[in-house]
């Protein structure tokens, strides 16, 4: 029992036997726990160092500067979210974290932004060019890792290799930076409440502090202890739905940092084009196991999950 390790260099190996064996391990991980460490990726140490520094630089700027790109002023959920803005777990206290979100940067008058203004449109960028350049570099690298991973998942599910990747022409993949400040008092241990992710897969880069926990199906919370040189990958709700519950989207949470400790993490939420029809993949249904879910646009699904999570959006629609 534990969070398995998957080797990206093997998943992308030109040697068929090596690749196929690792794809089997990947398939098992996605079915049994929906979480794994991905090692030997193309995200090099220098880039990890740069993004860690960029996050500190960004979150260390005065609140009034960060609020110039307040996510509340963004139609399409881009920019800075202050502490208490998000509450993932309805029962617990508000998440003790601040965030920054960016995605594909489209002008407000782009046809997709006009059609789906809550999902497409402009970013609200940090003013520091070094931070911005670093985020772009990381986004491009993480996206290529994600695409290769989705190719491997398609192979694992015995689908055409481009079954998933062909749905990423105008995708809504989000790079988020998170800063977990020290907990405000001893009994506020909620960094991020228990939740599942909405999209296809999430690639998470974390620093060496720790705090991420994954709910095993036996009910125990497993620590996703930081492992240098790795990222933590998990299956999201959209992928679970797409695969007729064969691949599982597993709950996870983050314990708030101890006094004096700051944690930084970087989830990369891999989400396809809005108008991707998510209907049960052909290899996940049979006479014995018919498709459980109606087909739906990926964007409509993700949108409905967003609306349920964000305090300010609920107030907006109340
Ligand atoms: O910060 C982490 O380790 C996880 C964050 C997370 O699960 C999320 O933002 O969805
Ligand atoms: Fe998450």
From TrEMBL:
This is 2-oxoglutarate-dependent ethylene/succinate-forming enzyme. Belongs to the iron/ascorbate-dependent oxidoreductase family. Keywords: Iron, Metal-binding, Oxidoreductase. It comes from the Bacteria. It comes from Marinomonas aquimarina. Transmembrane segments: none annotated. Pfam families: 2OG-FeII_Oxy (PF03171), DIOX_N (PF14226). Its EC number is 1.13.12.19. The gene is efe_1. InterPro entries: DIOX_N, IPNS-like_FE2OG_OXY, IPNS-like_sf, Oxoglu/Fe-dep_dioxygenase_dom. Residues 171-272 form the Fe2OG dioxygenase domain. GO terms for molecular function: 2-oxoglutarate oxygenase/decarboxylase (ethylene-forming) activity; metal ion binding. Gene3D superfamilies: B-lactam Antibiotic, Isopenicillin N Synthase, Chain.
């Amino acid at each position: 029992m534990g969070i398995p390790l998957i080797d990206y260099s093997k998943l992308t190996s030109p040697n068929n036997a090596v690749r196929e064996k690792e794809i089997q391990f990947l398939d098992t991980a996605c079915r049994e726990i929906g979480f794994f460490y991905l090692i030997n990726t193309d995200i090099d140490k220098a880039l990890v160092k740069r993004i860690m520094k960029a996050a500190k630089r960004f979150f260390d700027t005065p609140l009034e500067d960060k609020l110039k790109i307040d996510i509340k002023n963004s139609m399409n959920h881009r920019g800075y979210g202050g502490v208490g803005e998000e509450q993932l777990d309805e029962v617990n206290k508000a998440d003790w974290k601040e965030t920054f979100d960016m995605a594909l940067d489209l002008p407000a008058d782009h046809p997709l932004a006009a059609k789906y203004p809550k999902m497409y449109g402009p970013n609200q960028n940090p003013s520091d060019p070094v931070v911005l350049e670093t985020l772009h570099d990381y986004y491009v690298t993480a996206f290529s890792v994600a695409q290769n991973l989705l190719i491997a998942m398609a192979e694992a599910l015995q689908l055409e290799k481009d079954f998933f990747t062909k749905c990423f022409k105008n995708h809504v993949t989000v790079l988020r930076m998170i800063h977990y400040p020290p907990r405000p008092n001893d009994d506020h241990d909620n960094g991020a409440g228990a939740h599942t992710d909405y999209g296809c897969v999430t690639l998470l880069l974390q620093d060496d502090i720790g705090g991420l926990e994954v709910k095993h199906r036996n009910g125990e919370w497993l620590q996703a202890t930081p492992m240098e040189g790795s990222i933590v990958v998990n299956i999201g709700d959209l992928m679970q739905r797409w695969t007729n519950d064969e691949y599982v989207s597993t709950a996870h949470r983050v314990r708030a940092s101890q006094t004096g400790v700051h944690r930084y993490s970087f989830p990369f939420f891999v989400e396809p084009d809005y108008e991707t029809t998510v209907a049960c993949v052909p290899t996940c249904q049979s006479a014995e196991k018919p498709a459980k879910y109606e087909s739906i646009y990926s964007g409509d699904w993700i949108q409905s999950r967003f609306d349920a999570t964000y305090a300010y959006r609920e107030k907006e629609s109340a």
